Each structure stands twice: as C-alpha cells, then as structure tokens.
Amino acid sequence: MTDSATTPPRQPMAALPGGEVTEGGPMLAADGRPLKHSLNRALRREKLRAFLLVSPLLIFILVAFVAPIADMLFRSVENQIVSETLPRTVLALREDENLPEAAPGEPVYEALYTDLFIAAEYKTHTRLGSRLNYESTGLSSLFRGTGRDVGRFDTDIYTDQFIEAEPALEDPVAWSNWMADDDIRAALPQTADVWDAWVKLTVEANEDDPLEEDVEDFVYAALYRDLASGAAPAGFPDVDVSGFETVSIKALFEESDEDWVDPEVWQVIETYSPAYTDGYFLNSVDMMNGPDGGAEWRPEDEQIYLKLFWRTMWMSLAITVSCIVLGYPIAYLLSTLPLRSANVLMILVLLPFWTSLLVRTSAWKVLLQQQGVINDTLVWIGLVSDTNRLTLINNATGTMIAMTHILLPFMILPLYSVMKTIPPSYMRAAKSMGANDWTAFWRVFFPLSIPGIGAGSILAFILSIGYYITPEIVGGTSGVFISNRIAYHISSSLNWGLAAALGSILLALVLTLYWLYDRIVGIDNVKLGG
Amino acid sequence: MANGSSSEAFVEFERVQKSYDGEKLVVKDLNLSLPKGEFLTMLGPSGSGKTTCLMMLAGFETATHGEIRLDGKSINNIPPHKRGIGMVFQNYALFPHMTVGENLSFPLEVRKLGKSEREKKIARALDMVQMGEFKNRRPTQLSGGQQQRIALARALVFEPELVLMDEPLGALDKQLRETLQFEITELAHRLGITVVYVTHDQTEALTMSDRVAVFDDGRIQQLAPPDELYEKPQNSFVAQFIGENNTLDGVVEEIGPNSCLVRLDDGELIDALPVNVTDVGQRTRVSIRPERVESNIERLHPDAHTLPAVVQEFIYMGDTFRTRLKVAGHDDFVMKTRNAPDQPRLKPGQEIRIGWLPEDCRALDP
Questions:
Q1: Domain layout of chain A by residue ranges
Q2: Where is each ABC transporter domain found (chain B) (predicted)?
Q3: Taking the alpha carbons of A21, A27, A31, A37 in that order, is the dihedral positive or negative?
C-alpha cells in the first residue's frame, strides 16, 4: 500500500440540511398572508374533525369522571352545612365576646332557638349533628335531643302576653299586612326576618297556608326583642312590653341539655361555622383545629391516617419491587423465546387478567389461611410444626403476596414489550467483543430494559397505592391501605368530607411521585409498547 | 467444489454440517479454508446457509457435525466471547445508551485495559474511519453510514485478527455503499486482517473480495477469485447468479478437450467449452455472457457456428446498447454491445446472425 492510498479521500457522510433563512418577519405564503395563518386555516378542518371524533368520549369522561372527581375534591373543603342550618346563630356568634372562656350570651341562644326550631321542622338538625360529631363526639345526640325539645320550649308566655295586650296580634292576616309594610319591617328587623322564615317554613315544610295558621311562638319572641329594644313603628299595634314577664332562652337550652352551656361545644360550632374549612385535611394528617384556632396534633390514640399513608407507601413499594424481581426473568424469557412458545407463555401471564379479581383474591384466602393449602403442605413436609402454623393472611404478608400476584402482569407486559425491541444482535455484538454472558446482560441488555422497568413500576405502584378490594379481603387490620379507610368513610361513617380529603392527598401524592419520576427518569423513557 | 485445506490455513471448516430442526440440513458438508489476510466473501441467496456459517464461526450457532478451526485450534467448544473475533452487523448493533466513545471502549473495558491505553486505542480506531470528532455523540445522532463506520471501528478497536461482517452495508443507499466498500477493503488490506464477509449483493462480492464463496442449498457451489467466478462459472447456478447470463438448452453432439458441439433443442448447432459435460449425448445448458455475444460474425473464426436471431427490442443505455433477441425459440436472449462508431443500431424485427468464441460459451450441467 502506498501512503496516498492509506488515507482515502474524506467524504462527508450525509449532507446536513441547511437552515431555513428568513429575512426577518414571518414567512409568507404564496398569497402574501403569513404562512402560519394559512397553515392554521388548512389544518382547521382536520382539527375540527379530530375533535368531533373524540367528543363523545370527551363528554362521557367529563360527565362521568372529571365532574364527580371535582365534586368529591370540593367536598374536602366544603363546610356550608353549619352556616346554612344555623345562619342566625353563626351571625350572633360573631358578635359574642364570651367565647372561648364562657358560654355565649343570651342573643346567641335566641338566634339558636329560631334556627333550631326551623331546622327541626326541616329535619336538617340531625345532619348538622352528624357533621359536627366528626369534630367532637356527643354533638349528634345533643342536636337530636334538643331538636325534639325545641318545639316545646316555654316561650309561649310571650305569645300569651302579646295576644292579651292586643288581640289583633293573633291574626295571621293582620300580621301579613304589617309585614308587607317596609317601614314596619325596618323598625322590627328581627321580627321581619323570623316572620319570613316562618312563612317559608309553613309553605315549604308543612305545605299549609300561613294565613290560616297560628303564628309560632318564636315570632312573638322576636317581636318582644324588637319592641323591648325600643322600636315603636307607626301602623303597628302599640304594645308596652316593659311589664312583660320574660324567660331566659339560654336557661331553656340548659334545661334541655346542659352541654349547651359548655364553651367547648360552642367552640366547635364557631370553628366550623365558615363556609370552607381545613378541618378535613387536618384530620387526614392526624391533626385538628385546637381551641386557640391553631392546628394541633390529635391525641395519640386517635392518630391513624399518617400511619396508614406511610404503610400504603412502603407496602406499594415493596409490592412493586417484588413484581420487578418476579417479572423481569419471565419477561426476559418471553422476549428470547420464539414467537410461538412466547405466545403460549404469554397466555399464562394474561390468564389472571381473564379471571375475576374477587375469585383470585378469594383463592389466595384458601391458599394462605392457617388451615389452608400452603400451611398444610408445609406441615406435611415437616418444615413447620402443626402448632406453629404461619400467619400468612389477614396481615401485611397476605396483602403483599396477593397484590404481587395481581399486579404481576402489569409489570411483565411493559417489560416484555420493551425487551422485545432490543435486537438480539446487541447481545451478540457484546459477546463478540469479549463480554461474557453476565457482562453482556448487565452492561447492554439491562440498561436498555430500564424504560420497561420504569413503566412497569409506575403502573404497579400507582395501581397498588389505590388498591382496595384485595387489602380489604386479605389484609386484616395490619394489611389495609389508606383506600380501605376512604371506602369506610364513603360507605359506613358517611364522612364524605374526610374521605374526599384523604382522596385528594392520595391523588396529590401520586401526582408528585409521577412528577418526581419524570424529573429523575424522564417520562419519555417510559415505553408501554412498540 | 471447495478447495482442500492447506497447512497455512487460518480459518478452516472441515465437513461442517448444521441443522436447526433435526430434519433438514441448512449447511451440508462445508469444507473451506482461508489463509491469514484474505478477504473472503460468502455470497448467496437468502436461505443458502451463508449467514449460518458466519454465525458458527462467531460462535453464536454450534455446528451439528464437523470441526471449525481458528489458527490451527478447534474452536467448537469455545464460547463466542473467548474467540477474539471482531464482528460487524447489518443493523450496526451500536449500543444506543452509550456514546460513540463508550461503545468503542466496551471491548477494551471487558479486556481490563487501563484508561490511558483505552483512550489511545479509541482515538486511533476513530481516526481510522475518520470519525475522530464524533466521540461524544450518541449513535442515534449519526447517519447510517456514520453508524456503520463506528461499528467497524468498534469491531477493530481490540485488534482482532479475524473480522466477520454480516451484510454490513445492506441498509445503506447505493452511493454510500460504494464508498464504504472501498474503505472497508482498503482498511482490511492495510491492517492485514482476515475478513469473512457475508452479502447477497454480487457486485459487492466481486469488487471487494480476494475470493468469493458462492453458496446455494447449503453448499459452496464455487470458491474462486471474482474474475474467475464471473468468466468461468463452474455450474449453471453460479453462471446465473453472478452477473447477467443467457442460457440455451441442448444435447452434446461432439466433444473434444477444449471445445464441443451442442445441438440446441430447435436443431441449430453451436460451439461451446465443455465444463460439466463429458460424454456425447448428454443434456447440457450452455451459458453465454451478453457482452460476449458477437453480432458482427466476420470477426469470428470462419468455421464458427452461428445462429439466426430476430431483434425484439433495442435499448440505448449510453455507453452500451442492449439488444433483446429471439434466439432458438427464446425471446429473452440479451446482447450487450459497446457504443462504438462502427456498431450498428439495430431495429426491432431485423434479422441478424450471432455467434461467439467457443471458450465464451460454457456447456454446464442441465
């Protein structure tokens, strides 16, 4: 070889496409309009078509998925029940200065009397009781009991005294005329407000004609308060109330249940009187709104949710790891086998998919219980003594075993589809360069299969973090997840607000993990197929 | 058939057979030996067993029977990674998760070479394929031709004495293929490495190789230097597979040491060179290259036999004319003539006579 021949002429391997050069300003199309504009117009029809094609599914998802979820998430902070059921009480509490040291003053009880009377007619007081019971036990029965008593409160002394002083005050038609007069309404604000509420109540709840009904005691009680504070509107019967016999409504409430003068009860009502609350979220992390208004830890024996969140996380992680450990070799085998045998094996992998989840989980119950197949076999072999059988179910072990089995296909499928795309020539190339089987696998095959591990892990982890049925059946008490608690609050305790808050935290957690994963591994590296 | 082994052989196949399913032999009785420094191409249609032979040599397939020797030692039971054979694949097989430099570093790392030595060898290998400045790129950022150069550098960086190439240029376009064909042969000769190259492209085989082994049906049909292969095909498969070829069937009428007379099926007599025929009365298939057909019969020996032909089609191809003729009942007989001033341009329907030198017409197996 001569020297000149040892250096063959250099030839560029591929011409790089030259950059498009524009002389400032946007590119123009043939008709002189901006090219972008023309392009958009040309694509509009396509886009519209695409949109119309997806719109049925889009609408379905919006109605059946997004809207309910948004509604549920909203429930985690929504708290209008207190201010809707006890509107006057909430207003009066704001004026009150006795809390938190002592029970509130008379005006609060007067407002509560009206509110509770109306709520009892609508039967909404029990719902409010249940709601406040989440925050402080005993409030449910307090509201239920007093709801029954409030109609029999001895406030009729005002009614009797007014009718004795002015018989016209008994006539609902006269009342309705007075209450149509704006001057009178302005002079008797409480009376007007309570009158309207009574009219509405009579029409809506009792379906009666207010012009034919006896006006309720609480209207006279309100009238007394208005007149006692010095109002004397023109056109309204002039009654001198200074000599009236009075009754303390606070005392009546105390008589009904002495908890009504407990400042702590009022503290709870006041804390949860705003329309929105962070109480559910605080509850979700084992905290609560303390008497001083700040967040504080719940008592040790009431703390459960942080523990459950933590357990859900680490168990999901453990399940994901065991899925990788069990699934990777299977996926590797599948990807190296000829297509025909791979398909047969693939059916075995997919078989669990075609079996009901409940059947599979129940099967694990049969296998894992103390008198079950696995324990029996171990005792028979002699590995375990009959008196010392393994506890494989109704604990974390049971959940781990059953969940790993159920989530395994979700790990194998992405792993397989990624491994399938790794050409066998890579391994051959590595071996031809002197790498032994392990080095070739570890340095070449494994790094290229990581996107499959990533996809499988995300899938398995996210599915497992929200799993409900399997932990419920095989988890006992030490193997249940946060989702079981959410289900409990949705269907048993009916504390939807707390369930929604727990759910929101779970959702946020998953999204955060997803984001972290994207930052660290990159979501582009995740392949579910092809 | 294949030539026997010599004492100088570097790579040797001896009575090698290979079957995948236990019923059919993919490679039937392969005997092949090549000396150090030779560039040997295995050429053949797909399914002819050429890639299987390469894979057996590389160690990715095991021979069902027979022995493969490398530098005098049997390598049947040596795993691929201990054979020290460089390999270039059709799809490049560059590791996409490593940079070009890391790809080249891989064979050196598994050989536990020190960092400075690795760097030196990588730089040298990259310069060898003129890809020095691409060390930190990812394979996916390179064009197909660039990738194959890197793959070549990677197969050479650990200085193997034998390099196997499995249709390395198959995925490239024509122009690039030609450039790389030249570069690969030049590099192989400069480094003095032995190359076994597999391709189904006959032009590639003819232009690159010292010798070509034509495979068909699990056997080597002919092992010869390119010119011999083209001009002296040993049988009708090789004649048809390599280059363009006209065939005519007939019976041997007279036979001598250097020429024979063949009576074609339509009764015409032609001169031919006996290659695979030995006896009078044998059926034979004669093969003539299109460029060896002579339409100006005055140039031939006065005793030469000629055939009548009718022009079917005349195609002007610039440097050559390609004339399709109807000869002895076949209308796909092709004659290629140089575009020379004295060369007539024939018209369809024109009746001419054609002939050839006896040694250009080879009487082969039927």
A1: 84-152+250-275, 156-246, 305-525
A2: 11-242
A3: positive
**A420 membership: H or E segment, kind and range:** helix A396-420
Q: What is the pLDDT of residue A293?
A: 67
For B183, residues 6+ apart whose C-beta sits below 8 A from its C-beta are A8, B129, B149
Helix ranges (H only) for chain B are 50-58, 100-110, 115-128, 144-156, 174-191, 202-208, 226-231, 236-241
Which structural domains are found in chain B, ordered by start? 9-236 (3.40.50.300), 245-364 (2.40.50.140)
- Contact by Cβ (8 Å): B197, B40: yes
ipTM exceeding 0.90? Answer: no
In the DSSP assignment, the letter for residue B173 is: -
Cβ B265 vs Cβ B250: under 8 Å: yes
Asked whether the beta carbons of residue B145 and residue A447 sit closer than 8 angstroms, the reply is no
Q: Residue A100: is the preceding peptide bond cis (ω within 30°)? A: yes
DSSP labels for A54-67?
Answer: HHHHHHHHIIIIIH
* Interface residue B86 vs chain A (CB under 8 A): yes
Structure tokens of B265? 């099926």
CB neighbours of residue A325 within 10 Å: 11
B95: closest CA of chain A, how far (Å): 7
Alpha-carbon span B115 to A205, nearest angstrom:
90
Interface contact B107-A434, CB threshold 8 A: yes
Q: What is the pTM of this model?
A: 0.75
Q: What percent of chain B has pLDDT over 90?
A: 50
Q: Could you tell me which residues are beta bridge partners of residue B336?
A: B322
Provide, as residue numbers in chain B, all residues whose Cβ is less than 8 Å from the Cβ of A525. Answer: none
- Residue A20 is predicted with a pLDDT of 43
B139-160 burial string, b = 16+ CB within 10 Å, else e?
A: beebebbbbbbbbbbbbbbbeb
What is the SS3 assignment for B294? strand
pLDDT digits (tens, 9 = 90+) for A446-480: 999 988 898 899 889 988 998 888 999 888 888 88
Indicate whether A198 pLDDT > 70.
yes
d(CA A287, CA B181): 76
Say if CB B199 and CB B43 are below 8 A apart. Answer: yes
Q: Which of A6, A14, A436 sits opposite B190 (nearest CB)?
A: A6
| pLDDT score of A6 | 43
According to the CATH classification, is domain A305-525 in 1.10.3720.10?
yes
DSSP string, B200-224: S-HHHHHHH-SEEEEEETTEEEEEE
Contact A153, A217 (CB under 8 A): yes
Q: Hey, of B21, B51, B92, B95, which one would you mutate to test binding to chain A, going by the most A CBs within 10 A of its CB?
A: B95
- Rounded to whole angstroms, the Cα distance separating A252 from A256 reads 6
Higher-confidence position of A98 and B312: B312
Give the mean model confidence (pLDDT) for residues A293-319: 89
Nearest to A411 by CA among A481, A316, A342: A316
Which of B248, B208, B198, B260 lies closest to B229, judged by CA? B208
With a cut of 70, which residues of chain B have pLDDT below it? 1-7
Q: What's the mean per-residue pLDDT of chain A?
A: 85
Q: Do A217 and A113 touch, CB atoms closer than 8 A?
A: no
Nearest to B41 by CA among B208, B188, B197, B216: B197
